[in-house]
Amino acid sequence: MSALDLLSAFAATFTQEQRLLTLQLGDGGRWGETLLPLAVHGDEAVSDSYRYRVECLSPDTGLELKSLLGVPVRLGIAGADGTEQVRCGVVSAAEAVGSDGGFSKYALTVEPPFALLRLRKTSRVFQDLSVPDIVRQVFAEHAAANPVFAAVQSLDFAFAGELPPRSYCLQYRESDYDFVVRLLHEEGLAWRFEQGEGATERGSEASRGNTPQVTLVAFDDPYSPPPAGVERVRFHRRDATEEEDGLTRWDSTRQIVSGSVALASFDYQPVATGHSGDTSAVDQGTDGARLQSSLQDYDVPARTTLATPTSSPTTPGCASRRTMRKPSASTAVGAYVG
Q1: Domain final position from 219, 239, 267
Q2: Do residues 109 and 132 both lie within one domain?
Q3: Rounded CA gap, 320 and 280, in Å?
Q4: Are 145 and 199 in contact (CB under 8 A)?
Q5: What spans are recorded as compositionally biased (Low complexity) (predicted)?
Q6: Rounded percentage of the chain residues whose pLDDT exceeds 70
Q7: Residue 5's Cα: distance from chain center in Å?
Q8: Among 78-87, 126-135, 223-232, 282-291, whose mean pLDDT is lowest?
Q9: How far is the C-alpha of 110 from the C-alpha of 87, rounded, in Å?
Q10: For residues 13 and 24, what is the distance between their CA atoms, to the nearest angstrom?
């Protein structure tokens, strides 16, 4: 028996069944327990894409990194109450990062397929289509030409009513990701991701053959997303052992942002110009308010013209949304039991 066979036999005792992290690549058949998740670091937010870096151990020292790229991923994170948070996506980057105790160490970057639309840049014109119709067309193009995108990524709009069509909408030297995000923001729509999977029971045989899926959901009601799974989160000092999940560190920052917004646009149908403006409603303190008093964000969003003047980029609602920058941010550090 070779050294690799001995190491593989030893590694066979380390399965994902009793671990806080589970990792499924593809349908779970090809990779099996080849990669054992060790740690995960990630960032996610409303109206932004998420990215997770998953550190893994493997008895195989010669995994071909390119064979991991584009593989659908299901990442499970166990909670203290027995539930599991699921994050799905695709492998956008793979690294070989040395060894740990005789095992080879790898790192996978997991993102939703939508995030990879940053890599496709183009210029084109859309006419007489609403923002949902334009976004659906962009997604349909990628689904038709990209089997991984079609299998993993889907789209949903969760809001009442209909948005007006745009008589002329230009995507100019812009990635599909930036274009879609810009259109959603111009209409005052937030967006989030819903994680889906074929089976809810972790590690069940029914999960075999199911591809992890993620849905981008655009919405306009801040109360429409489902509530958090927990009503409260403990904030306490770090202990050696924990009986429930909690936060052990909270950092906050504040920064100066633009104090006002002024918008101007040109409509070729009929020939007219529109103007709008708004001042920041964020309390930045006495000196902070003085500092931002002359910091105006002036823009002429001329790349789009809407079919109805009541929904042009210079309406007061658009200006108000642009004043809601991110003047503050918080970072939390916590611990899972185990």
Answers
A1: 219
A2: no
A3: 8
A4: no
A5: 304-316
A6: 65
A7: 40
A8: 282-291
A9: 9
A10: 18
